[in-house]
Amino acid sequence: MRNKRLMYVIFIFLFSLCMNGSVSANTVEEIKIDNVNFPDAIFRKRIIYYDTDKNGYLSSDELTKITSIYFDGGDSNLERNIASLKGIEYLTDLKAIHLHETNITNLDLSRNSKLTRVSILNPNTEELTLPKDSKITEIRISNYKPNKLYVGMLSELKKLQLVNCMNITVLDVTNNNKIKSINISRDTTTKDKLRQINIGKKEQLKYLSLNKLASLRKISIGKTPVLDGVHITNCRKLKSINTTKMPKLRKLNVERCILKSLNITKNTKLQTLNCSNNKLTKLNVRKNKLLKILKCNDNKIKSLKLNKNKKLVNLNCKNNNIKYLNICNIRLRNIRCDKKVMISK
Asked: Does the keyword Lipid biosynthesis apply (predicted)?
């Protein structure tokens, strides 16, 4: 009798566990679509679109369907007026976000850990929080107001583009070992504050572009074995750049800086060089036998030996101190030099 009672108790206990497990497995956490969870009416209207059963809630299945958010104020006055993305923390399957010319100034993406692409091109971005454990591969940000932007935790980052981020003083990407492209620029007359960029050793970096960074004084860059193109232009405080650890470099543009020297003897793959409008007094291109385009005008160069540059087709060496130029056995298509220069063909 006791055994039967014991078995009955065990049966009830196990049955209860199964029932509870069944209930738990089928319990769906739903997010109510209201002004508490989604305070901004424009954002809320967009979210309603994903409520496919029209019950006023987002089910877990409906939430998984929201993988991208796109608001472009340049195309729509209505979208320009969106001011908050509060509620985006519920969209845990979000992979891409694009904001262009909206009124959103503060954006917290800390809970959107599946994000891969972030594009925030707003007039005034005052605060941006990125997820720490992140899969982000691409970031585009413009008009970022804070003086710091930390991207070191983005281990999957491959592309970084910053435009008019005027208050950042130091940018460090030394921990972003998978980065392939870095593009930082300014297209306004307002002076930026970026003084130093730390890049470090980058095995996968292929492209580096820095333009109109008026305060930039130092670029720290290590071994970059696949770097193909470097464009560092209109950086009027930059006195030096080290390219000796860029063995695959084919295109180098460093015009309108204040470089006093440029060592390109290790860049034997170089095909295009623009170092115009600097303060160079000499330029050695004898190791650059693949060079096709050379623009070194508006410097203080005294002599230019081109006898090793048989593939050169375009040369501009105007406004230097060059007196003699030997271009024998070079099939130049275009040449620009001062009238006073004696040319040997």
From this structure: no
pLDDT tens figures, 94-134: 999 999 999 999 999 999 999 999 999 999 899 999 998 88
Query: What is the Cα–Cα distance from 236 to 258, expressed in whole angstroms?
Result: 6
CA atoms of 40 and 71, how far apart (whole Å): 13
CA distances (Å), 286 to each of 194, 297, 325, in order?
Answer: 35, 18, 14
For residue 334, tell me if it sits in a domain: yes
| Residues 6+ positions from 203 with CB-CB distance below 8 Å | 177, 223, 224, 225, 226
Residue-wise pLDDT for 295-342, tens only, equals 999 999 999 999 999 999 999 999 999 999 999 889 899 999 999 999
Q: Whole-model pTM?
A: 0.89
The pLDDT confidence band at residue 10, using thresholds 50, 70 and 90, is very low
Domain range for 338: 102-344
- Rounded (5°) CA angle 195-198-203: 150
Decide if 78 is inside a domain.
no
CA end-to-end distance (rounded Å), the chain:
117
CATH of the domain at 337: 3.80.10.10
Contact 279, 258 (CB under 8 A): yes
Structure tokens at 63: 């939430």
List of long-range contacts for 116-124, beta carbons under 8 Å, 24+ apart: 116/156, 120/144, 121/163
Positive or negative torsion for Cα 59, 60, 61, 63: positive
The number of beta carbons lying within 10 Å of the beta carbon of residue 158 is 18
**66 belongs to a structural domain:** no
Own/partner contacts of 332-339, CB < 8 Å, gap of 24 or more, are 336/297
Query: How many structural domains does the chain have?
Result: 1
